[in-house]
Amino acid sequence: MSRRTPSRPQSRGKAAGSRTRRRPSALIPALVLTALGGAATGLLLSLSRQAEAPVSRPPVPAAATAASGTEARRPAPKRQAPRTAAPAATRTSASSPSRAPAGPAPSAARTQASRKTAEAAPGGRVALTFDAGASAAPAQDILKTLRERSVRCTFFLTGRFARDNPDIVRSIVADGHEPGNHTFSHPDLRRLEDDGIREELRRAEETISAICGRSTRPWFRPPFGARDGRVLKVAREEGYECVYWTLDSWDSFRKGITAREIRERVLGRVKAGDVVLFHIGSRATADALPDILDGLAEKGLECVPVSQLGSPVPH
Ligand SMILES: [Zn+2]
């Protein structure tokens, strides 16, 4: 149903245009229907906007809150140069997907969309990131969608998730995605001593790399986005650079969010250089992803892992 709702004025214009070529006797009812359809769509859009209105930023813990929402979109004061020093293995495996050609045959429309993405990115690049930690159920569908479009992303894994879902972790790496460190047990790192932070990062790294043969360095995302200067410093000493986000899909933050709402939220806000936050435990994200990838391709945005974003990552 949601796919039929015209999301852009263009689609409505096209539909109205084709109706005006009908016989005159059919014209009046057709125009009435068109007007009603437009009004209904407008109502739906305004309802969904109202529903979003009261909540303007995600409920991340205090330190993270300061950098969420619009502030996170601004360049950080201590921004480093665009990262190009990612491990060679990262770039190699991400740019030469061994499993992509063997995937299921994509539909014509999807082939076109992924070709567009591969050929040129006139609109720039975005990094889609997926945090893992809770439910693993929708993960296979998410991976399948990404595989069909030959899209590479960054997955922030907890050590616990990896231990409990080794096959998913191996698929992530085999498909050319980039694994990142999301700690072992998903604590608020600000509440741990320095040694506790190190322990969380090291246990996760040991577990994940033992399963998939790839290091999670240099990327790390703090659970809940909760970090402060000390957490970032300890993480840096452990070889990690924090990756926050500039656009939250709300797939974890807002209970009951639908695939359509996620799609409209992401496609309505996304811009070049964004780091978009998703969760692989979200059924709604798994359902929204094909349309989101189509929409990004239409905007000329290329999806890349964090290491290939080419612009500074938000800390
Ligand atoms: Zn998490």
Write structural notes for this entry.
The protein has a domain at 108-308: Glycoside hydrolase/deacetylase (TIM Barrel, Alpha-Beta Barrel). It is built from 13 helices and eight strands. The chain has helices at 9-19, 24-52, 62-65, 69-73, 88-95, 108-119, 139-148, 159-164, 166-174, 194-212, 229-237, 259-269, 283-298; strands at residues 124-131, 154-157, 178-181, 219-220, 241-242, 247-248, 275-279, 301-303. The strands form two sheets. Strands 1, 2, 3, 6, 7 and 8 form a six-stranded parallel beta sheet that branches. Strands 4-5 form a two-stranded parallel sheet. Strand 6 (247-248), helix 12 (259-269) and strand 7 (275-279) form a beta-alpha-beta unit. Helix 1 (9-19) packs antiparallel against helix 2 and helix 10 (194-212) packs across helix 11 (229-237).
Tell me the number of helical segments per DSSP (H or I, 4 or more residues long): 13
Share of residues in strands: 5-15%
Major beta sheet summary: 6 strands, parallel
Radius of gyration using CA atoms only? 21 Å
- Spell out the helices and strands N to C: HHHHHHEHEHHEHEHEEHEHE
The CATH architecture assignment of the domain at 108-308 turns out to be: Alpha-Beta Barrel
Q: State the separation between the terminal residues, measured CA to CA.
A: 38 Å
Helix content: 40-55%
Apparent shape: globular
CATH class assignment of the domain at 108-308: Alpha Beta
**Annotated CATH topology of the domain at 108-308:** TIM Barrel
The CATH superfamily title of the domain at 108-308: Glycoside hydrolase/deacetylase
Task: Supply the helix-strand structural class.
Answer: alpha/beta
Number of strands: 8
> Which residues sit in consecutive blocks of at least 5 with pLDDT less than 50?
1-120
